[in-house]
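Private note to self, pasted from the team thread so I don't lose it. Backbone tokens:
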């Protein structure tokens, strides 16, 4: 049992260093925030492992989120992959095993990763490389992008149309598929409890509930402490699920604190000790990070993700605070 620790990246000093820093070359400007701050603070990083996804390479806005603008020289190791890559992380990182094996201090910036990619990455480092401690970084968005309308869809027909309506948020342009993240399929069980960490896309949450027939459905509402008004928006966008749940089946937590999310999931597990937990982290990425650590510590848990053939990459605007979460895997967090 350990006490968790998180701090603002602005509090870091040049006395800190990392043997390896892992990040993804994303599209949004905030994907570069941790790279820039490490450079500005003079933090010594011996090697950078940068994941590139081919679906992003030809995007017209790629330059804004290109971390390579800030990284040069032989300290940078590029790893090319794609959203449809069927290789495991053992294969992808096989050529870097010597670097990782000899690393005592590892950092991972999950800002540019999708959930289905950073989950198996963290599990690989822990289960295959024996790395129990690592620092995970994440940069919040300053705000979210909500389209004013979406042709052919009525999210809330009883709500008057308005240019300020925030009910049309979506990360996917086309159809979606739902499955278990690689390495997080959990144990087989006849009794399941579905835990949905809700975000703004209420239709996806309903789809998850319909696709996975569980004895019990529980909602966890993570709201950004820096933008508390979005707590109500996420509840409104998921009003169909909220109406179907009892008040004891809706939990609240901070969207920027994965450790508190972990503790909420642990309390749910204690309520249903004989049930297999299916967890769908649909909200902010720190919610997903807390889910990842929980599922590693409770391997009978399954974690679901939503896959689309065509993502809306620009779902946030500008950059907010950057956080560092110090993980100690294999321990119970309090």
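Design output:
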């Amino acid at each position: 049992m350990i006490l968790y620790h998180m701090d603002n990246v602005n509090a870091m000093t040049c006395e800190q260093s990392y043997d390896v820093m892992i990040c993804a070359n994303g599209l949004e400007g905030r994907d570069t925030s941790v790279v820039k701050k490490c450079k500005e603070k003079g933090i010594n990083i011996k090697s950078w492992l940068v994941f590139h996804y081919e679906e992003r390479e030809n995007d017209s806005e790629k330059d804004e989120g290109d971390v390579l603008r800030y990284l040069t020289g032989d300290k940078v190791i590029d790893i090319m992959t794609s959203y449809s890559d069927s290789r495991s992380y053992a294969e992808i990182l096989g050529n870097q095993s010597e670097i990782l094996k000899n690393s005592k201090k590892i950092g991972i910036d999950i800002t540019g990763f999708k959930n289905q990619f950073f989950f198996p990455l963290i599990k690989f480092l822990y289960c295959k490389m024996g790395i129990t401690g690592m620092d995970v970084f994440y940069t919040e968005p300053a705000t979210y992008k909500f389209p004013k309308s979406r042709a052919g869809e009525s999210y809330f027909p009883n709500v008057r149309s308005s240019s300020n309506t925030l009910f049309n948020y979506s990360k996917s342009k086309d159809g979606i598929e739902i499955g278990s993240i690689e390495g997080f399929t959990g144990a087989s069980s006849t009794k399941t409890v579905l835990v949905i960490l809700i975000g703004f896309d209420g239709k996806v949450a309903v789809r998850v509930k319909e696709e996975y027939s569980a004895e019990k459905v529980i909602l966890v509402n993570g709201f950004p402490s820096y933008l508390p008004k979005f707590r109500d928006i996420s509840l409104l966008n998921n009003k169909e699920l909220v109406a179907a749940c009892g008040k004891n089946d809706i939990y609240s937590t901070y969207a920027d604190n994965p450790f508190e999310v972990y503790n909420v999931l642990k309390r749910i597990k204690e309520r249903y000790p004989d049930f297999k937990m299916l967890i769908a982290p649909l909200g902010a990425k720190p919610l997903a990070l807390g889910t990842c650590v929980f599922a590693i510590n409770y391997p009978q848990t399954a974690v679901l993700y939503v896959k689309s053939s065509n993502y809306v990459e620009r779902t946030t605007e500008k950059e907010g605070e950057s956080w560092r979460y110090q993980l100690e895997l294999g321990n119970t967090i309090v």
